[in-house]
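Subject: complex prediction, re-run

Hi both,

The earlier run crashed halfway through, so I resubmitted it with identical inputs.
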Amino acid sequence: MSRATLGWIVLGWVGFALLPWYGFDRTAVPTLTDYIIGGSALVHGLKGAWWLLPVLVPLLMSLRPAALPSRPDNSTWLIASGLTGLALIVLQGFTIGLNGWNLDILKVISGDNGPSQGGMGYGAALTSIAFLIVLCHGLAARGWCRGDAFVTSSIGIVVALIIVFVFFPVSTILASAFADNNGDFAPLEFVTKFMDRSIWGLDCLTSDLRCGVAWNTLFLGVLVAFGTTALGLAFALIATRTAFRYKKLLRVMSVLPIITPPFVIGLALILIFGRSGALSSVLWEWFGIPRSRWIYGLPGIFIAQLLAFTPIAFLVLIGVVQGISPTLEEASQTLRAKSWTTFLTVTLPLMRPGLANAFLLGFVESLADFGNPLVLGGNFEVLSTKIFFAVVGAQQDQGRAAVLSIILLAFTLGAFWLQHAWLGKKVYTTVTGKGDAGIPLPLPRRVALASYFTAIPWALFTVGVYAIILVGAFVRSMGRDYTPTLEHFLTAFRVEATERGFFFSGSAWDSFFATIKVAGISAPLTAAIGLLTAYLLTRQRFSGQRSFEFGTLLSFAIPGTVVGVSYILAFNVPPIEITGTGFVLVMCFVFRNMPVGVRSGIATLSQIDKSLDEASLTLGARSATTMRRVVLPLLRPAIVASLVYSFVRAMTAVSAVIFLVTAEYNMATTYIVGRVEAGEFGLAIAYSTVLIVVMLIAILAIQLAVGERRLGRRSASTSANPVAAPAIP
Amino acid sequence: MKLKKNLVAATMLAGSMTALSFLSAGAAQAQGALVMYCGVQEEWCRAMVTAFERETGIKVSMTRKSAGEVFAQVKAEAANPRADIWWGGTGDPHMQAAEEGLTVEYTSPRMSELQDWAVRQWEQSKKRTVGIYSGALGFGYNTELAKSNNAGELKCWADLLKPELKDEVQVADPNSSGTAYTLLASIVQIMGEDKGFEYLKALHKNVNQYTKSGAAPAKAMAQGETTAGIAFMHDIVTMVVDKAPVKVVAPCEGTGYEIGSMSIIKGAKNMESAQKFYDWALSADAQKLGAEAKSYQVPSNKSTPIPPQAPKMTDIKLINFDFAKYGSSEERKRLLSKWDNEVKNLPK
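This time it finished cleanly. Structure:
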């Protein structure tokens, strides 16, 4: 019986007896007594909400181990208390809803509508968490995870969060795949919808008809995954292994597309390659090459997704390339291998976890991408847009959307298993406590050349795209009227000085502040949960690890639209009633973006030798200390990656939030989409440039705050200073 | 142990702090509030909100979304409605919401001031939704591109089948866009179902892209990405006002139209404010705001001045559009799947 367990038991009581059990109605103004005691479950229970009183039983049960700390059967009491408590809270929450009994059968039995209750509030949340932790502590006392309560609690929390914010909403919407329009169970309808020719048709192989949307999506995904991994690798190699002069610039530029709000890249591509685009006009006027619409369709989406997702591959790969110890490469060269052979047989295989993760992310991102296919898709249809329009389009067919989501999910899971199979059980550890020369080998000539030849033209292309975007913000109407103007910025971001101070009268300010707030809160949460999960997955062994890992990936695989709708379906009614708040946006972002933290954390962690942790543990440090002093400093690239990624994604996501925004929490992207719909490209682009600048500043700030990982590797240029920085501060 | 506890506790604390700050920020005043889902352009939505707040002192929380998105959201929120009023956006989703009982009946004292089509919409929906503006379907063409294609002047639906326009017509996909569904229903009503589908099959050869959004063809025309585009005429007018080289056409065979509508959500938490807004939104003063916000639909109150840029309804041959039949979900499903099988899957 530790003090921590005792603390959580106390918190469980606080949640039950002091804090308001129910959430507040948004139109009500709560008083102080509503906050303390007055609205607590105990008071409600005594006043007639009898279904809350049974929760007292497990709370009392938890007191026994607290009162008699040295009994051997305490762990059983803790486990029993935690389990019963959680079960009772879930049970009462789901059986009694806003309009009485949730199950019709109970209405029949009781003869009336039954009691009603609102959504849970702080008290319920705290008590539930306390029960969960008590349960985990009990399990640890039983010897789970070598009796480490930190590990069991972490697993418990992550699992609970994933169940609540991923499985619960997703199962709500997937259930509708098996229902007809009236909500009745109809498995046959599922089969007909599933086997539809528009999904699986292979007509494009034999005739000039179109192929099914599933094949389109799969083909595009594989293509994009290969492309982004190759480009990402080229950038990563140049950035870490060459003396290329404009490295820094290259890094900034490769990151630009990731911080670009959606639609903007697509828009810019149309302005360059479209039929009246800049390049097409030049080709037609100078070389007589006829204008065409090739950009609409597969080529356009492919280019736009390459632009958008290469940075993700780069962010994953740079940590991995940096982490490869030169020792093995040196050994290979000592054994007289040519540098090309070394690269092929030593360096490249060591990058496998990075390559596999980059590929997986590229594939999954391409599958879930919504903005680019929307703007550039032409007649090339992919699942994500199909799902969106199945929900909001003229069909209004939620069941169809659910069926398509299941297919999309299946593809993602397939990719996940393939990746696992390819990585196998090999060891990729190269960051160990042992010393090494610390100077990474230069790249073989042909690899260096190949990297330069892929990366530099691509970087120049990126510059071109961004030049167009920048110009677009400052001219009246891109493509038609090039009169320079600041009008777009003034409309969006006007600030007036009145006698009462500054007044933000621009139409974009509301959404701008809301976006910054939501992104700023969700980024650190995402990184924390993501890296904690990665740590649990790589460093701990527990049963159900695979399904745990799959659960963390799930929300990423599901397209934003489906997530958005499922969040409304799941969280608009009690017990968890959080739609319309900023909280639901934050949670949506955290669980959508967490997989990147998990992936880059896993990729980086699998390189770091476990003996480092073990040394720390042997010296008497606990898991939490080891994590803070040893693992976290080595994880810096992964921390930067997940912080940057989640901040940026929170600022640029569209499809998931389009259903979750409210008047108070309107997001920048939905505002931009509205402007694009209205044809006000100038304003949309101007707003986007402002967002890009904000995100650049944020990325620099994150990098400054987290700092670089010091691995004791020296670059050739700094070898004048022979003292290697210690790996562990 | 202490550290572990601290770490877990810190995570929890951070979580609950965010929850706290957000939940409390969500609390609005109890008196005189209105939650509105707005289905037209942002600028118009904002103008409506400001004017209504100034007039009544009721605080409006407005969220702008496309009509389909609003419908999906209202349906998802049916068990615990968030919004009070749904103002604007094409009539079909409003009709469907009425059919599914997501909105409530209301009879405004201003019903007598409205145009016939608005009242008819209200009667067909069993008093659950009312017309606030209407816009006719039409097409437009980029005059510069039309000249270089030798397409000549385009006046009728039939002109869009000209061989010179091969791969030069853009229209939205009726599966995703209400605009394109209006086209499908209109063509079927003008030409009869068999002839109508013959026409759509012939048109398919000239279509370069079925866009997702209904207004996209208007933009593509203005940008010079396509010669002709089918859309609501007021969307094309917006491009003309923006000085794009585009000509608006009211097809000679006649054409269908949309009725932008307004409904009160069933279970609205601020019913009184919603009704106040409903009455106000039907007044001529409120409907004037559309033209000021560069939206050129025809308002439903008879005494609202019609914006000079708006396509004159008297110059347009409007068909007697059967909203009840073609707005019902059965007929819609049937027509859409027929279009999918017989038109969209055709080789070019």
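DSSP finds 15 helices and eleven strands in chain B.

- K.
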